[in-house]
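Protein 1 of 2
SEQ + STRUCT:
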Amino acid sequence: MRFFEALAAWVVRFRLLVIAGWVVALVAAMVALPSLGSEVNSDPSLFLSGSARSVQAADLGTSLLGARTTSKVTIVAATSGTRLTSADVAAIEREARLAQQVTGVQSVRYVAESPGGDAVQLTATVNRDTSDVAGLKPVIASLQATFPNAGAPPGLQLHLAGQAATNAANNASGNKATNRIAILSVVMIIVLLLIVLRSPLAAVITFVPAVVALLISEKFIAGLGAHGLQVSSVTQTLLTVLMLGAGTDYGLFLVYRFREELRSGTGEQEAVVRALARTGESITGSAGTVILALLTLLLGSFGLYHDLGIPLALGVAVMLLAGLTLLPALLAVSARVVFPGRTLGPAADRPGLWGRVAARAVRRPVAVLCAGAVVFAVLALAATAYKTASLDRSATAPAGSDAAAGNAVLASDFPQSSASPSDLVLQYATPAWQHPADLATAAASLGKSGLFASLAGPLDPNGTTIAPADYQRLHATLGDPRNLPLAEPAAAAGEIPASAYNAYRATAQYVAADGLTVRFAAGLRAGPQQSTAAMNATPAVRAALTTAAAASGAAGNGVAGQAAGLYDVSTAANNDMVRIIPVAVLAIAVLLGLVLRSLVAPVYLVVTIAASYLAALGLTTFLVITLGGQDGLVFVLPFLMFVFLLALGEDYNILIMTRIREEARELPLREAVVRAIAMTGPTVTSAGLILAATFAVLAAAGGGVMGGQLQSIGLGLALGVLLDTFGVRTLLVPSIVILLGRWNWWPSPLGRPSGAERGEPAPVP
């Protein structure tokens, strides 16, 4: 406490200097560092390690799928059903030349013409990694800007399609959704602060440090993103919700205690000092539990978890610094007017609602504890219906975007293709055109599996079948299909039918230039690539490809694509959950033991958090799956719910338990519990409502992030916070404290048989 007394005295004395320092830091960060939105990536499969099977498959198919340091952007040109005219072809050729001139584009080549002759695919290879959304966005925008200059005749439409264009579109949509979430969170928090504090100035002062900390943290994290840290849309959105919600909670811890000191007759400046001295340890311990829980994510092998830890922990650390310096400085500057007409003296001693609730709970602690256990157990039983879902629509372009229109053209005019197919990669020891019968064997083996609704490959590249012997002959006659022009040369027109020419030219996307790597683009019967069914079909698809590889003599094989990537993501995430949760529990239990000076209290506090987590997961499962009819909950939800509820739930534990310990120095334990709950009840209730409200905003407005799956995460966290606030912290924990008596504080001095149990003051630990 002495440290916080000294810190409080220093902050109050130099309050204007402290405020000026934060203003300078904010301005410097806003000017010197990049925007966080420009560094955000929406595709979770890009957070996989190099050991993941889908990543190894992509590496195997590098010559066809592209290197990790490049991206392929599909340009589609299509009419409304009529064959392309010479004017259309000329416009497409102009577009290819314009696209080639765009900065960042390495090459542009023709890929395929649709079977009906009404659409053409081109591929632009861009010197930006698919995960480098900040680098891709200007290239995507520049490519789109070339369309009006191509002079397309009426009826010819030009669009971008594929994963890179979809990621860029989702990034823009996600930024809009995050901004919407931030605005709604701000409005919700301000309204609730006005209700609970009944002072506009107090509401603003409580909220401003959280906003300042958020803005500075976003800039610092964006700077880390520019230097290689992967930042997901999950990180961006959770950072906003966490810092605004939890930051306001920490502000309430201090502001409520400041008001309590004012009511007791303490002078304004001294009230700030005493408030920070008495809540500083609680605020620091609370933020410490969150930081510690987040840092355990660094143990994860899944990049999304691993890279979530540093940004959020950094944000909470900045928020803690603001809560211990900027907020008390603002209170010191406005202390005389922040609570006009405040009540003094006796008003602070009135028991209030929570005092009456606590008094009843401590009279019958066994009944309260048993009733709570039954309710939580019933809710937890609903979690037995939990099923894992994929990140639905996370790689589907937002409606109305150019990428969505381009992907729709691919689906309609190139039915054998897909904007995001399963890429089945085979590697042979000799060029494919020397043994084309093996390609037919592989295709037949894959077809027999019954897993694929469509299958495009070297012998069926655009809906036109090529016989193995014809493929060998076409290669001998025409050479590398990558070098063929869009329009068939006159010299070849008499010998090779146009359909065969177009089909062979389309094989460039299925056979590498050296002929050793072959790719099949598959549409799954299970459903679209981003669906849960497609993700769960990955083991069967891998087995079918292994069989085809053996039948055709391939030396290597692998399944790439989004469904395989999401399957690997889910596997890695589940493995991380088993690895990280025990470490997080142990780390937070140790921190609680240090803060509370007890070896007993951390045990039941962590157990109560686990109870509220299971109850919240069960209730979320019931609402989303049983009632909502969805096919599952996004796989990251159980893990993120546990980490956040473990960390944030302990915030309220620390506040309540440290206040009980403080009161137990002067009062018998039952009276200490009643008074502590009476004094902290409004704080915990207000803080819990505000935090739950910010997560509820995420549930209501998170539809543009991760394909809407953040909505279920927001719902789960909001329910968990409410259960924890109104059930665990204010009823179950006080009941356990009463039942354990002095053992709550063992082995500190308060844990010894003392005067506290005989109605005498307990010794100070």
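Protein 2 of 2
SEQ + STRUCT:
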Amino acid sequence: MNLNILQGFRHEVYACFTRASDALFNTVDALLTETQAQSFPELSLSPYFERRWCSLYEAFADGRIDQGRLRQVFVKYLLPAEGEPIWLGLDATSIQRPQSRTSPDRTVVYVPNLPESSKPISYGWQFSTVVLLPHQPSSWTAVLDQQRIRSEQTSVEVAATQLRELAPLLRCRPIVATDRWYSCAPFLLATEGLPFDKLLRLKRKRVLYRPAPAPTGKRGAPRKDGERFQCGNPSTYGQASGSWQGTDAKGHLIEVTWWNGLHLSKARHLEVTAIRVLHHHATYRPRDPRESWFVWDGSPQACIPEVALGYRRRYSHEHGYRFEKQSLLWAVPRLRTPAHFERWSQVVAIVHNLLVLARAQVQPELRPWESSQREASPQQVRRAMAKIMAQLGTPAQPSKPRGKSPGRQTGAVVRPAPRYGVVYKSQPKPKKRRKRA
């Protein structure tokens, strides 16, 4: 068993902790091995956390993490060998804090998977994440960068900033797969010129345009856009640039059609390709649509059918979020300030990436009812991490007991924590007054 890569990764991560490094790294080891913890203080029960439970909260209040250096460490150890195609997932997720009135900079966040006729919103923080997508949809994603979306920012602005910061660290031109939120002109303009090919999902009724016709010489301004191309409206398709028929991994019939030379009305100088994927076996349910639309902003020499069928890798991003929130307790700690929670989010990303690197070095630990024929999950690898911790060692220094704290002075005035309201990015529309008869 060669543990040199894991040990090197751990030491370089430790060097990214510029303050309270020992307590933060003890938290990393505790989260990595304590699979039975259901709350944040329970992590202090791990034998690898060499401090008292109150040091958990002090570590994130006093600690500092060099995010730029941590990003370089992630890219250095997690990118595959040269020659392999690299797919990156880009998405945002929410951490709900509806009752946390003492937490600043909370915004309105979307809540998925609610029953119909329910209002799918809450209050909390949002995080934008760039992950390395595996070949098959699973939880084996690797976090390359993670940033909080502040109230004065949008998810598109933060996503473009993340790609701009990752671009100098990459050795190839990866494909970035996103959901429908990023298939807009601001994102395409903000990422123009960056060494990324982008595959963005489109809404079914999205409208694109063909090139504008030549000026006619008549009075008036010439046309800026050509004929409309509306997804889901066959009367606007016209002649396709190419088509392909084949089968997916399960043997189901799939048809891919694409149209070149289109553009968005607010980004006319950027030519994109609209892609239509038709699943003949679909059940017409929201999670199993018969027709899917994408926009390709990348190399014109790319194989469009191969790119379109590769979008299924993006579903791993959702599985990765679920693993981090359910197993790694990402949304559980009630840390007061956004800065504290950002440090906790970086610790969760470090543990997730440690499991990805340890996947080939550890024999997964299965429950009696879990099948050994399936691919091992990150949680199964996490159960076995305690067996190699003694060989890995830790760069953290042992704790130094300082005795019992004297506590609060007698007669000290205790002031309540300040309260903060929710920051609304867009002001609600005023209600119209009814005219009197």
